């Protein structure tokens, strides 16, 4: 049998399949990915060195399909508006692929396109007047909040349930004013993001 005219695999296809697999199963293994692509596991190693590189391709696919953090207009805004816009585009990207969040959040960021995004964030914050030793903690804190919020967006609309009003009257009172739908998570994100940015502002003033 001759070679197929169209190659069975390329790096973009591997990344897209790995992202789908993580979304569906909440996990990623080389054998499962090979099955999803209809090839032998050994075929993957003609294109990638291993699992870490596959996760890198997943991250690249997510950025390519969502544009998260890549819009130059985001970084041309004043720092608070820029971080607000970045957080919201980043949240949308991760919320579209919740199963991949644990993998993407714990893999080292070695990709040049990610370095370019962090360069934009670092330049923005340094130009705003933040100290060099403040910048990465601020970025990390914001990203941690975004990742948690992305998982919350795909969690059940009601997360605290079956509360006995007699033994937890204060909790019951606040739950009475908590939406029992998806807006619960979006409201929490909005409140948390405002609080984070206010805290960043206080650091800058201090």
Automatic annotation (TrEMBL):
Gene3D superfamilies membership: Tetracycline Repressor, domain 2
GO BP, one annotated term: response to antibiotic
Presence of keyword Transcription regulation: yes
DNA-binding region(s), chain positions: 29-48
Domain HTH tetR-type residue range list: 8-66
Gene Ontology molecular function: DNA binding
UniProt keywords, alphabetically: DNA-binding, Repressor, Transcription, Transcription regulation
Coiled coil: none
Domain of life of the native organism: Bacteria
Protein name: TetR/AcrR family transcriptional regulator
Organism field: Streptomyces montanus
């Amino acid at each position: 049998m001759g070679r197929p005219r169209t190659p069975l695999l390329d790096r973009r296809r591997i990344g897209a399949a790995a992202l789908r697999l993580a979304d569906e199963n909440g996990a990623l293994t080389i054998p499962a990915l090979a099955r999803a692509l209809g090839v032998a596991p050994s075929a993957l190693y003609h294109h990638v060195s291993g699992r870490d590189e596959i996760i890198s391709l997943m991250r690249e696919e997510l950025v390519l399909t969502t544009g998260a953090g890549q819009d130059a207009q985001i970084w041309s805004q004043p720092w608070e508006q820029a971080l607000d816009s970045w957080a919201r585009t980043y949240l949308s990207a991760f919320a579209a692929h919740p199963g991949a969040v644990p993998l993407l959040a714990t893999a080292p960021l070695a990709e040049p396109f990610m370095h370019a995004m962090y360069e934009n964030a670092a330049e923005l914050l340094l130009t705003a007047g933040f100290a060099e030793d403040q910048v990465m903690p601020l970025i990390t804190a914001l990203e941690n909040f975004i990742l948690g919020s992305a998982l919350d967006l795909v969690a059940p609309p009601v997360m605290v349930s079956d509360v006995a009003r007699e033994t937890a009257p204060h909790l019951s009172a606040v739950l009475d004013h908590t939406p029992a739908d998806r807006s619960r998570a979006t409201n929490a994100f909005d409140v948390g993001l405002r609080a984070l940015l206010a805290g960043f502002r206080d650091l800058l003033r201090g």
